Amino acid sequence: MTIPYRAIAVFHAVARNGSLTAAGVELSITPSAVHQQVHHLESHLGVKLFNRSGRKITLTEVGEQYYADISAEIMHIENSTIKLKGYRDIKTLSIRAAPTFAACWLNGRIDTFLKANDDIEVHIDGNSEPPHFLDERVDIDIRYGSGIWSGLYIEPLLEDDIMPLCAPHVAASASLTPDDLFEFRLTHSIKNMIHWDHWFSLAEIQPPGRWRRILFDRGHMALDFAAGGGGIALEGRRVAQKHIDQGRLVCPVDQPPLIRRHTHWIVCPYQNLRIPKVRRFIDWLRAEIMKVETLGFH
C-alpha cells in the first residue's frame, strides 16, 4: 500500500495549528493546496478527520486519535531532518542584509561572531530585495523597513535616531539652527523611511521651493558623501556610529527634533528558527544590540 506521506505531514500541520491558513504559511503552500491534501488523506483512510463550520476547523474523534498516534513520530522525523541539515550546512550561514546595515554595522562586528563560532562560515549578501528563502537558500534576512511582512518570523532589531550628520569641518557639532541647513547641500537615501521634507515638518520649518541636494539609493553612500565633506546627510545615528566614533561625522544642529524609529528587523521563516546556526546568529545579534543599548548613544 502506498503511504501518502505528504498528505500526512499536511494533516499534522493543520491539526497542530488548528487552521488551514496557518498550516499553509508554515508549509509555504496555499490554503487550497492544504485542503486538497487533507481531502486526499481522508479519502485514502476512508474516515473524516476534521469537522468544518465556516472558517472554523476541529478534529473529529478519530482525527484526534490519529493525530495523537502519529505526532511523536512526525516530530522525531522533523527533528532528525533538521539535525542532519544542520550538520550538512553548518559551514555556511547565508545572511541577506540591508546594504547600509551590512556596510556600516554588521561588517565591523561580524568578526566577533566568527571567533565565537569557528565552525561556521558566513556568506553576507548586501541586498535590500526580500529573499525567496527556499529558492535562494537564504537562512536569515536583516531587513530595513516597516516590519510588516506576512507569513514570516519578524523581530525588531535596531531602533535608530534619524538626524542631520556632516563632517566637522563643514559645520561643528550643535552649531546650526534648522534654518541654517539650506545653506548646505543636503542628502539622503531615497529608500529611507524619513526624508528631509518630513524632518523639516517636525522642525516646524517651511523649506524653500528648491534647495541644493543630492540623492543616493543607499544610506551608506549618503554617509560617505557627508563624511567626505560633500554636504549634510539625514541618516540613522546607529548605522553612522563608526563614522561618529572616528570623528568623521557630527550632528551640526542644536537640539534637533527627535525621530526614533525601528528601522531594521530579523526576518526568516519560522522553521529556520530551529536550525542551530540561525539560532546562534540571532542570539549574537541580540547580545550586540544589548551592548549598544546598555552603553546608550554616544
From TrEMBL:
<dbReference type="Pfam" id="PF03466">
    <property type="entry name" value="LysR_substrate"/>
</dbReference>
<dbReference type="InterPro" id="IPR036390">
    <property type="entry name" value="WH_DNA-bd_sf"/>
</dbReference>
<dbReference type="GO" id="GO:0043565">
    <property type="term" value="F:sequence-specific DNA binding"/>
</dbReference>
<keyword id="KW-0805">Transcription regulation</keyword>
<dbReference type="GO" id="GO:0006351">
    <property type="term" value="P:DNA-templated transcription"/>
</dbReference>
<dbReference type="GO" id="GO:0003700">
    <property type="term" value="F:DNA-binding transcription factor activity"/>
</dbReference>
<dbReference type="Pfam" id="PF00126">
    <property type="entry name" value="HTH_1"/>
</dbReference>
<dbReference type="InterPro" id="IPR005119">
    <property type="entry name" value="LysR_subst-bd"/>
</dbReference>
<keyword id="KW-0238">DNA-binding</keyword>
<keyword id="KW-0804">Transcription</keyword>
<dbReference type="InterPro" id="IPR058163">
    <property type="entry name" value="LysR-type_TF_proteobact-type"/>
</dbReference>
<dbReference type="InterPro" id="IPR000847">
    <property type="entry name" value="LysR_HTH_N"/>
</dbReference>
<comment type="similarity">
    <text>Belongs to the LysR transcriptional regulatory family.</text>
</comment>
<feature type="domain" description="HTH lysR-type">
    <location>
        <begin position="3"/>
        <end position="60"/>
    </location>
</feature>
<protein>
    <submittedName>
        <fullName>LysR family transcriptional regulator</fullName>
    </submittedName>
</protein>
<dbReference type="InterPro" id="IPR036388">
    <property type="entry name" value="WH-like_DNA-bd_sf"/>
</dbReference>
